[in-house]
Amino acid sequence: MNLISLLKKYNVAGPRYTSYPTVPEWTEQVKSSDYQRALASLQAEEKLSLYFHIPFCERLCHFCGCMRVITEDHRRTEAYIRALLAEMRTVQQNLAVKKPRVCQIHFGGGTPNFLKPEELEQIFEEIKKIFCIEVDAEIAIEMHPRTSTVEFCQMLKKLGFNRISLGVQDFDPRVQQLIHRNQTYEQTREMIDVLRDLGFHSFNFDLIYGLPGQSLKTWRETLAKVIELSPDRLAVYSYAHVPWKSPVQRSFKDQDLPPPELKIQLFEEAYQMFLSQGYRSIGMDHFAKEGDELSQALDRGTIHRNFMGYTTRAEAHQLGFGVSSISYVGGHYFQNEKDLKSYEQQATLGELTTFRGYLLNQEDSIRRDLITQIMCRAELDFEKFSKKWKISFKTYFSQELNSLSELIEDALLIVDQDRLYATTSGKLFLRNIAMIFDPYYQKQKLDRPTFSQTV
Ligand code: SF4
């Protein structure tokens, strides 16, 4: 079967596995008191990854599925920063460890560069009071090229940021018009020049395929411009059309969306283009240059996957700050309040704002580890896994192993005595492989639409 036929066959609705169990399984029975207990259980030798959600954006991109607040009123950050600082202090009070070590900090959004430079500095000063940032910590921020300023970039340098992630999506003006996100190639290039002059040398671009108005011709032009700008990493996401969750996506006319065959060709084009330019394929949808840390982590088998995509800091507990942020601490998930006003009120009063989460049992943890290994390494060693979890892999997962036959027949997966691993083509279908091991998905798939298409 050729690649296009395979992509058509396996293009079904399925989770992205940035968490396991996936969010539809989470429950509001998980409360702040559970998060408190998880924070208190952290040990001095354990490392942390901090995530800060800055929800504000000046304009609404019509493809957006993120938690964001659209406003041009920059004074709205004042109350938000008060809440963020208060939340950090509340978390600190619940930690048994003084000044825990932090190996990764990530500002996401929304648009983090909606903040004024001095506001970012204010947050950073509080981080330094509470946590000990390791010398080689990865300090990253997502930026919108159209709204960033030279002063903001200078502040990033001063504060020690070392990784910049730019939302590019597509450079074609017609696509940009349809998705309501205008940022010219020149604006993006100028911003990168400013950042490179300041000494930044680690860039990630986010691209999206399957957006309205995309054609093979315009997409090739976008890819050529991306190559010119030479980012170190690329995330090439499939546009998730979930209008039942993000009603703004109803602004797209059906005829503007690329049909499934074209969408698949767009991904294949990007895949071939980046590989031919010396990038390595990481997981399902990421690419990294040979010398990049993500590429090296792939060789060492230390890549992990979380809500920010693929990361090299596998061992860290994740503390999320800000409205709707997700934490993964002590093996359990906790999500902050999703309503901005309620978040600000509760956090400013010194409360943790957990509104839902998931406490994993032993079986969930075993399956989470398995799905993470498939999504990150595209392989699994039976003996190592059995030893780690004190199980016999083949007995524990006998039913799932029997369900892999179609993927094996289609040459997407190889299962031998010692391990299972995806073939080169199979790496495009890691979500489909993982889905076999996810009993919650198997139950849900017959219900209402919950997930986007896997391709
Ligand atoms: S900038 Fe990002 S978060 Fe804001 S509306 Fe656009 S896609 Fe959504």
Q: What gyration radius follows from the Cα positions, in whole Å? A: 22 Å
Which ligands, by name, code or SMILES, are bound? Answer: iron/sulfur cluster
Strand proportion, as a percent range, falls in 15-25%
| CATH topology call of the largest domain | pyruvate-formate lyase- activating enzyme
Side-by-side strand order of the widest sheet: 9-10-8-7-6-5-4-1-13
Unreliable spans: none
The CATH class label of the largest domain is Alpha Beta
The major beta sheet can be summarized as:
9 strands, mixed
- Fraction of residues in H or I helices: 25-40%
| Distance separating the two termini | 17 Å
- Report the average pLDDT across residues: 92
Count the E strands: 19
CATH architecture of the largest domain: Alpha-Beta Horseshoe
Integer count of domains: 2
CATH superfamily of the largest domain: tm_1862 like domain
Q: List the total number of helices.
A: 18
Question: Can you describe this structure?
Answer:
This protein has 455 residues and is α/β, with parallel strands linked by helices. It is built from 18 helices and 19 strands. A nine-stranded mixed β-sheet has the order 9-10-8-7-6-5-4-1-13, with helices on both faces. Strands 14-15-16 form a three-stranded antiparallel β-sheet, covered by helices on one side. Strand 11 (304-306) and strand 12 form a beta hairpin. Helix 3 (76-94) runs parallel beside helix 4 and helix 8 (216-229) packs parallel to helix 9 (260-276). The longest helix is centred in the first third of the chain and has 19 residues, at 76-94. It is globular and about 55 Å long. Bound molecules: iron/sulfur cluster. Iron/sulfur cluster binds at residues 57, 60-61, 64, 66, 68, 109-111, 144, 167. The site of iron/sulfur cluster has 11 residues, from loops.
